[in-house]
Amino acid sequence: MTISSTNVAPHQSLEAELLLQAYQALPVALFATLVNGFILSFVMWTIAPRFIVVGWIVALMVLSLFRYLDFRLYRDEIVKGWDGKSVPGYFDGLAQLTGIMWGVAGYSFFTVDSSIHLAFLGFLLAGMTAGAVTTLSVRRRTSQIFLVTALLPFVVQLMLQGQPIYLAMGIMVLLYLVFGLVNANRLNNNVIDNIQVRMRSVANEIRLTRQDELLHQTGHIGRIAGWYYNQLSGKIIGTPELYTMLELPALSEITLNTAIAIYSSDNRQKIEAVFKSAMKNQQAFDIDVELTMASGANRWTRIAGVPTPDSVRKSFDLIGIVQDIGDRKAIELDLVMQQQQLEMAIASSSAGKFHYDGNTGLLRLDAMVKELFNIDSETTDIPLNGFLQNIPVAERTVLQKYFTQTNGDFSCEISISSQNKVNELRCIEIKGTAMQYVREVSGLIFDITQRKEWEATISQASTAALEMAQAKTIFLANMSHEIRTPLNGIIGMLKLMQDTGLSPEQRRYNHIASHSAQSLLGIINDILDYSKLDADRVKLEQKPFQIAECVRNTVELFSSLAVNKNLILDVSIDPGLSRVLLGDPFRIEQILNNFVSNAIKYTEAGSVHIKFSQVTDVSTELKLRAEIIDSGVGISKEAQLRLFTPFEQADNSVTRKYGGTGLGLSICKHLIELMDGEVGVSSEPGCGTTFWFEISLPLADEGMQIEAIPEVAVTARDRATRFAGYRILLVEDNMVNQIVAQELLRLYGATIDLAENGQEALEKYQTSKYDLIFMDVQMPVMDGLEATRQIRELEMRNGQGAVAIVAMTANAFAEDKANCKTAGMDDFLSKPFEVAELEKILTQWLQREIPAITKSSLH
Q1: Is the peptide bond before 585 cis (omega within 30 degrees of 0)?
Q2: 282-307: per-residue pLDDT in tens?
Q3: How far apart are the C-alpha atoms of 449 and 438, rounded to whole Å?
Q4: pTM, rounded to two decimals
Q5: CA–CA separation, 156 vs 159, rounded Å?
Q6: Is 237 within 8 Å of 231 (Cβ atoms)?
Q7: Of 402, 600, 780, 843, which shows the fewest CB atoms inside 10 Å?
């Protein structure tokens, strides 16, 4: 198998090409070697020692085998693109060993006495070496070593014989050796010259191909086509891009008239005149004209050309380009339109233009700027320093820096005296762009006096509104405290009265009074919730919980009310909602409680159904839908439109059957929107109502635990001894609340001490040991926050354990709880409170491990 040198990769070196040539001739050389070797062995079989002949032929065959294996192993690697840095295989070494084998033959077989055999041996050696010269000429060094090792031993043996005939033969073989070396060198030079010529040719072809490809790509990217106009034939030759650009068949014949006909009638005479003038006056041209495509579309093109001399006819042809400039023209037209729009905007606004040239030091102003700054100069250009004299000293330096040192966009506001009224200031805004590399500044000057007046008015109105909102918040906080404090006494006393020996009639009166007090508390809570939502002061918690727990709490709260009205209260929850979610369960329960309360209130017979279903479920969050379906009176379409409006109800008449503030649904809507959810209603009068809402909640991470609710006592006997032996300090200034709190705490068997203000509480704390302190916040002499801070300081100074301090206050805003936490309080109990809430607090803080107070634990 031979290897064609035309397959050589173009990046190969001369060394790689030479080695490939050698491998190409190797199969023929191996065949000749084996044939000559067997002929010589046949002749010498009967006249030379056979072990020499056998050993020689075996060695020759082994060498030939290795040379063939080397050929098979490396021929593909060389064709793929050998770099020529190192000779693969053992080509040179194996060839040189073959030459040594022939030298051994010439030396060893000299034992033959017959001159005929000797002559035959010389003939074979000469023929073999002659063939080797052609094979190995591409490897100069290998050829030289092969010839010398093959013939020189034979020459030496001839010279050593001493007979004239052998001497003559030795001289002839030596001359043949010299001739072979010279011929091998000449052949090697010829091969190298041929390879170098071919490699240069291939390289030139590749370079021309790449240049042609580069030219084509450049023309395609730049949308440029080349053309040549021959004046004698009147024909135009173009690059492929020309036919594509003009939407003409590839390589179709184009004449000057054909090319001109493509353009619009307004441009044909212009183009023809330009061509004729260029050829007549030997002048280059460059024009922009609009042509009409074969498809009928118009396209802007740039045509440029230069005359080129025709030495045969002693005249001039034209060579040039055609460039598609449609995008550029569109941008230019857009810029012109934008400039016109800018001019119109400037003309219709209180703005003027300026341009400063740092090379001349002159500032160009339009008429409006000169009028604004009361500049009487009739020229449009004035020195910069002259203009700056109109600027107040405090702002002059800053503005001068913008004009002379700053680079990039800038904006500043200054005040100047009005030219119309004495002591009236005009507010001026200067916006510009400084380009210090060309020492130029351009921009606009606006009269923003009226805008500043508007901003001042809006700012004053905003400040007044904020002050009013703050005043409303303070009023609501105070009213909340003032109303909830006596209400706590009323509810507490009624609760204590229930545990006394009341007659049935008294118990009924007590129940009515308790219900009225709870209704009043609900109204107050609604008003506070709405005010907090209205002021954007509600913050949602993010804690792990389960929907089923929220529904269970709601059902437990309203089940007795449903039973009293003979209503069925049932629940259905999608199994997919059993996972732990992150959110604010208190607010979700508040929404459910409001919807379920309304459903029971407006349903006289039938059922109320709470339904939770899963809408979507992705890897990180879950979207759920809640529906509260009742069989009540229903709501008209007109009333549905105002349901979620504050202080609105479905029945707003003075004779309405059902009470309420009209805030509940509005609060629910606000809370659901805070959760990025939706709420709605569907109803028909007499056919029941369905309130629904959809919210998306993130899934809790694995391992997050739901907050456990501590077990509380349920029997009076357990309650009376549950906290016996514990000592509690009650800090409260209101006498009624003192009685209520003391009596409720005594129900649990605890020992109660009383302090009427913070100072008294501090003194009692220093003389006695307490397990828990209930601290009011608003008190005379020293308030509860300051008393708490001083208690914590004493604990830190003395290194003693921290006593649990729980705020017991009528202040119900979120910032009130935050202030208590910051002062060092551990928990918060809002008045009026339920007995269950008090029992939860006692359980949590009396049965705990007391840590030592440190500075880092203080807030």
Answers
A1: no
A2: 888 888 887 776 666 777 888 888 88
A3: 33
A4: 0.38
A5: 5
A6: no
A7: 780
Axis-axis angle for helices 91-108, 140-161 (nearest 10)? 10
Q: How far apart are CA 142 and CA 98, in angstroms?
A: 11
CA angle 197, 203, 206 (to 5 degrees): 145
CA-to-CA distance for 251 and 236, rounded, in angstroms? 11
Q: How far apart are CA 299 and CA 239, in angstroms?
A: 19
Phi, psi of 83 (to 5 degrees): -80, -10
Give the containing element (helix H, strand E) for 797. helix 784-798
Specify burial of residue 214 (Cβ count, 10 A radius: 0-12, 13-18, 19+): exposed
Count of C-beta atoms within a 10 Å radius of residue 541: 11
- Give the Cα separation of 338 and 344 in Å (integer): 10
Q: Is 46 helix (H, G, I), strand (E, B) or coil?
A: coil
Report CA dihedral (207, 213, 215, 221) to the nearest 10 degrees. -150
- Between CA 804 and CA 802 the distance in angstroms is 6
Four-point Cα dihedral 741, 743, 747, 753, nearest 10: 70
DSSP state of 5: G
Identify whether the C-beta of residue 331 lies closer than 8 Å to the C-beta of residue 351.
no
From 757, 723, 728, 740, select the one nearest 840 (Cα to Cα).
723
pLDDT digits (tens, 9 = 90+) for 540-590: 778 898 989 889 888 887 887 888 889 999 999 988 888 888 988 888 888
| Tokens at 689, concatenated | 């109502």
Q: Which residue has the tokens 């809002």?
A: 830
Q: 496 vs 491, 493, 500, 771, 808, CA distance in Å?
A: 9, 5, 7, 24, 18
Burial code (b: 16+ CB inside 10 Å, e: under 16) for 72-90 equals: eebbeebbeebebeebebb
